[in-house]
Amino acid sequence: IRLRGYGIEIGVLQTGPMNAITDVQGVKVGHTTLIQGDDIRTGVTAILPHSGNLFQEKVPAAIYIGNGFGKLAGYTQVKELGNIETPIVLTNTLSVPRAADALITYTLMQPENENVRSVNPIVGETNDGYLNDIRKRVVTEKDVLNAIAQASDGPVEEGNCGAGTGTSCFGYKGGIGTSSRVIPEKLGGYTVGVLVQTNFGGIFKLNGIPVAKELDNYSRMLKYGSDGSCMIVIITDAPLDSRNLERLAKRAMLGLGRTGGIASNGSGDYVIAISTAEENRIPYESDSPILYQNFLRNNNTTPLFLAAIEATEEAILNSLFAAEDMIGVDNHERKALPKEEILELIENYRMLGH
Amino acid sequence: IRLRGYGIEIGVLQTGPMNAITDVQGVKVGHTTLIQGDDIRTGVTAILPHSGNLFQEKVPAAIYIGNGFGKLAGYTQVKELGNIETPIVLTNTLSVPRAADALITYTLMQPENENVRSVNPIVGETNDGYLNDIRKRVVTEKDVLNAIAQASDGPVEEGNCGAGTGTSCFGYKGGIGTSSRVIPEKLGGYTVGVLVQTNFGGIFKLNGIPVAKELDNYSRMLKYGSDGSCMIVIITDAPLDSRNLERLAKRAMLGLGRTGGIASNGSGDYVIAISTAEENRIPYESDSPILYQNFLRNNNTTPLFLAAIEATEEAILNSLFAAEDMIGVDNHERKALPKEEILELIENYRMLGH
Amino acid sequence: IRLRGYGIEIGVLQTGPMNAITDVQGVKVGHTTLIQGDDIRTGVTAILPHSGNLFQEKVPAAIYIGNGFGKLAGYTQVKELGNIETPIVLTNTLSVPRAADALITYTLMQPENENVRSVNPIVGETNDGYLNDIRKRVVTEKDVLNAIAQASDGPVEEGNCGAGTGTSCFGYKGGIGTSSRVIPEKLGGYTVGVLVQTNFGGIFKLNGIPVAKELDNYSRMLKYGSDGSCMIVIITDAPLDSRNLERLAKRAMLGLGRTGGIASNGSGDYVIAISTAEENRIPYESDSPILYQNFLRNNNTTPLFLAAIEATEEAILNSLFAAEDMIGVDNHERKALPKEEILELIENYRMLGH
Amino acid sequence: IRLRGYGIEIGVLQTGPMNAITDVQGVKVGHTTLIQGDDIRTGVTAILPHSGNLFQEKVPAAIYIGNGFGKLAGYTQVKELGNIETPIVLTNTLSVPRAADALITYTLMQPENENVRSVNPIVGETNDGYLNDIRKRVVTEKDVLNAIAQASDGPVEEGNCGAGTGTSCFGYKGGIGTSSRVIPEKLGGYTVGVLVQTNFGGIFKLNGIPVAKELDNYSRMLKYGSDGSCMIVIITDAPLDSRNLERLAKRAMLGLGRTGGIASNGSGDYVIAISTAEENRIPYESDSPILYQNFLRNNNTTPLFLAAIEATEEAILNSLFAAEDMIGVDNHERKALPKEEILELIENYRMLGH
Description:
Four copies of one chain form a homotetramer.
Chain A: E1 28-36, E2 40-48, E3 57-68, H1 75-81, E4 83-84, E5 88-92, H2 96-109, E6 122-126, H3 141-149, E7 168-169, E8 172-173, E9 176-182, E10 191-198, H4 211-214, E11 230-236, H5 242-258, E12 268-275, E13 282-283, E14 290-296, H6 302-322, E15 326-327, E16 333-334, H7 339-348
Parallel strand pairs in A: 5-6, 11-12
Antiparallel strand pairs in A: 1-2, 2-5, 3-4, 3-12, 3-13, 7-8, 9-10, 10-11, 15-16
């Protein structure tokens, strides 16, 4: 049962049919989940903005750095050129280089890319070292290629899977979560989808209810280490250029803030935003020196901003609702969100139905 | 009665004695409130980080651009040099240049500054054009110098005063608000004070309660114009360098997000952060080429981040609780927050006392 | 006689017909020169990207901060929204607010702008305080409006005029300079025009010849104060979006570097870049939520980058060749470039004709 | 024979004893050069700011993005935290991930780092795909670890070695180059060392002499592909904080500009700047929440800026003077700089000795 299954509604906008990033036409998600022995709890999540050859048909994109204590690969070229040319891969902190290398392999071996000699792989990460023996770096090229190969549209698996297999959030078991919003037809009818890999701390709130305070479940000393982080991926079919995609990405942090996230010193919080609008694809090679593009005016971005905030908040909550108890390396344990206790709390707050 | 007078507590950290930016030792605030005839509803708020000659003893500082659709003066030099050398002045959008000019006058005429030929005035703004005939640009040099001259420590006037005289927030009357937090002694015992000029929109939440949704009081079309904006000023006695002050400033936007703010396209949202730690003052002239400074390590910033988030959220709410009904230009009217209705709502949500 | 009149050619690209920023169709430049008594040596230069109502028809733009120790007005909104909505005004450091205020006046009083309540004035500056009693702030609103009113296409006055009236460069008299480049038809045939206000230091080179070293005319102690700065304005008819305009702006600093400029600590070096391509104008209001735009692909920007570098280098040199001896406040004197001595040096270097 | 062996002096400041980045006390450089069969022409260069455990004793650092069309690893954390915690490794574009992975291995296996679970490897690159079969990705972990192990102080090998083995510059054979400057004792006596990996284009100038123009050796169509780039590493013993290190890094691009570089669209130009001042090392763990640091004041940075410009210009020229003819993949050939022709040209320009 996802969050909405309990009658809890986040925000004021409508969700898409699946309430998932895959509500954006053409988007696919795939996971490789690695649970091995007592100590390996990690994985890979791949997100494909479209099903074509991404290198040959790049997509407008931007990355916003909420807090840069992280190892995301690919930032500077996206900033400079305003586009992304590979799938997006999420994994654990110490596996970023191998995942990036796998994305190069993937790109070089695609048909039409025989002469490509420069690739900008995009890999995000959070640190699952509490449950996973991260120093072993078990993620292989094959794991990454599998996640891409298995990517599909349709509902997205959430919780302890893919890059969220071993993550923690607000002291509970975190993981992968997703959500979407569709803005009213009069405002363009666009869809905004979000996928998160949650591994951060703060003072947890559920739809405004101060759960952490009520359950007295937060660190008084606020000594968050370097093992935090949240990766947020936003995809929309709205025709935004890279400048407005960066603005959209920035809003996701407000959604994170609503869950009680504080972007602590050690939390590497990054937001990747992509537009899949077909008219704005960027061909690798072209006879024309000019790109004919149709971009939404600055004035019309606000509904999308709200959509990104709401979908981020809900995706984070979905990750927590989907995650399950896990024991990992050194017998470290993360409990799932105590849903019954929390639902009772919500009942007391009489917020069900709102 | 301020928010806490109703038993409503925001966050988990302690406030300072006055729950105001002036809880940070040495900080002074002054207002010039301009209410004239039917059409002038504007003013000036001045914030002094310390009472000495700010040009001769600069303070480490940073400005974070939450959303840059605004006219703040002074950004680029603060970014480059990491310090601020004048009081901070807030006013209305079209009066920024005259306020900046007044700050130059102020600086040039201070003793010791006889040879100063370069000044970087810091002026923030929001657009009070709904209640104020902003095109008249009535703010004068004298109004600015008065705000500085009247600046005092002690409690800070909130609501319809100074630069908040004519502002609007979430469809209600906005204004000036302030709040503070003191972090536990074991974490340094530092104070973080925040002052806001609220003039923005979104889907209002009060301590997590979805007031706008419950009262059905928000724009379905999300067509926020260019008249939004929120100015946020953070001052702390914690010894932060400009890099960590920028990180601190960034967190204030999470506090704004918690009130339901969405940083709409037209909202110029800026956060100015300053450290008043005496050991880190930056002398204009010095015999030594070296600055001996004591800065907090990156690892120890998190409690301050939380403090900034909580104090920003509460300062915004304080501005709304303090503001009163106002009629202005063209008979435009802004109602104060319907406090009784809202307190009843809160009662229903049983959140009083939390 | 301008630089090319002596047979000195900078770079490899062709200049436009006038070798001036006004070679870009529709661009106009106007100066107000203020030379009063013994102590006033300052002025205003206005640059109009097109002759329509700039607020109603904004132009794609970007500002690159070479070194942010300066007081330029308008940066953050240009960064956020990617456009400029007023003429560009250059003046002295302490007159920026009054010039910005005048641009607001100008914008508010234009037909069609009766309801405008938010304007982002763009004002750049350098510090002419060595020759000008800058603390007097003599520049008035009328001076700014005059510069705009007198703006014309055709050749641009250079040297001791407008905002360059009292400036210094490499220890000589600086001022206003301009230059342009036209890229080959096969590469698009676009024009890139540059105008500079030169007031900076370093180790002067003329077309590669180490003039400062040969003439032993540079500061051994490199103690440049806060009075430096160079303002650079680039306008092109190439259809660049704001992202690529920022990249173009960045290249101008390479041109400054070629003259021996070093962007010293106290030098506020800013580059404003604008595209006047008519198909990409941004209407203030529009029935359509979509902008249909034609932008040059990233791959096709390089020739424009070279053009910006060459035109910046030559514009700086033109400012020095045009400037004349000046005595100002406190009997301070700046000598013009010793042209005969330098031409002899060039002759020795046998570089004439190259 | 290096450039100065021909009597050519760049700039006005003194070089260090070796005119190399290793003139900065404690800095070590190591190369792994990979020349295999007909098609492999690549390698690795490692730069160690000090010989201790860099993770345990981090160094203040900044990275400036001259042009972000590149794949440098590690940018965002350096920007956020202001320090570097691994050696710097340079290699080819498609080998960045494997080099980054090797740096993680290196860091994890160092004594004292047994519990480290988060590492930010710094890897720069240029694209040697013209001479090297870059798609083969032959660089191994061992190659990287060897470069680090072999790193030594003393003179630095230049030209066709390490990461410069297969690079091209201005149409000639490029490679590794280095240079240094020592600023006058009265200004602090600090050393600034630069190392470059040159692989970029433009219109070549040697100490101001327009070599490319004279020899008619440049592309009329300016169609530089994505295979350009220049990596620049600056190390200084001056006590600069990360903010002023970023400013220092920015100046290196002016030095690149003086050689005729234009930062073409496809050129990934990055500048990494580090301070080795011992008093400002940043311990990984510490009992004190405060860092006691001694930083140079903003006002005293200018001589260092000039030093960075001059050393970058000379390091680039040194790379060209040291590089030798090379034939690589697909029988592609790069000729070394035609030194005799050029020296004759210089003779004609009578610039020897200046």
